[in-house]
Design goal:
single chain; alpha+beta; 10 strands; binds zinc ion
């Protein structure tokens, strides 16, 4: 499952393809969208945002195309004269000066006016997006102290997109490891400096994953892991995917558990219960 950093990178690719360009053709499979297709012609694509796992294509006239890929949707980028050879069903095609962005298989697609976007049933439940909304560590810290989150266990809370949007399963394990926190702890159990460190790592580890294509490990530990013969699947992470291997920090054996029916990796010595 892609997490915030992977969705943001996909948005960057769409932005590079059609961002700043003028739509000269729009096609939608769903009739409720198809009626708006011609009204997009001649309009600039202003920006591509993400919010959690939603993709938001913003147009210069303040309209926003919302799409959520769920498990099966996929964007393909191509030139107008070379549509992808695929058996998937086309749902959206935006063409801008010879360049196209085509969305296949997704079913959750709708067109909004910027002002009404906060009323969207999915988006209205999300916290601020870590990558598209420049969320700061101070903002995260304030949210961790909210009554509704204070008594939630970190293992579950970090996957709750209502806290902040963009965290997913590998980021959860990595952030808890970097902050020396056990997943059973709750914000209310933490000292001020632990809360501050957690907030800082929620922001910085997510940004690093975005900038480095999913690599959340530190360079020193990457070198150590590569020397030990670990494949990229393992060396890209500090703790995730490393069950049975030695902790980079203390040498204890990394454990894999299930928290919220998703796998979580931790060091029993660095992250005591
Ligand atoms: Zn350790």
């Amino acid at each position: 499952m892609p997490e915030g950093p992977e969705i943001r990178r996909a948005a960057d690719r769409i932005e590079k393809q059609i961002g700043g360009r003028v739509i000269d053709d729009a096609w939608f499979a769903f009739p409720e969208l198809a009626v708006h297709a011609s009204s997009l012609i001649g309009i600039h694509v202003s920006r591509i945002d993400t919010w959690g796992k939603a993709m938001l294509i913003r147009f210069a006239d303040q309209r926003v195309l919302y799409s959520h890929n769920q498990l099966y949707g996929v964007w393909k980028l191509h030139s107008e004269d070379k549509p992808p050879n695929t058996k998937r069903s086309l749902r959206v095609r935006l063409s801008a000066q010879g360049r196209c962005a085509s969305l296949y298989s997704a079913s959750d697609i709708s067109l909004w006016h910027e002002e009404n976007l906060v009323e969207h049933p999915f988006l209205s439940r999300l916290g601020p997006d870590l990558l598209s909304q420049d969320t700061t560590a101070e903002q995260v810290q304030q949210r961790l102290r909210l009554k509704q989150f204070q008594k939630r266990r970190l293992g579950a809370l970090l996957l709750d997109q209502g806290l902040v949007a963009g965290l997913g399963n590998y980021l959860r394990s990595e952030i808890l490891f970097f902050t020396h926190l056990h997943p059973q702890l709750r914000p209310i159990d933490l000292t001020d400096s632990q809360i501050a460190l957690l907030s800082e790592k929620i922001v910085s580890v997510t940004h690093q994953a975005y900038l480095k294509a999913g690599v959340t490990n530190t360079q020193a530990w990457i070198d150590q892991a590569i020397n030990a013969g670990e494949p990229r699947r393992q060396w890209r992470f500090a703790v995730f995917e490393r069950a049975g291997l030695e902790c980079h920090r203390c040498g204890a054996v990394i454990e894999r558990t299930m928290v919220g029916s998703r796998r979580l990796y931790l060091c029993p010595r660095c992250q005591p219960a």
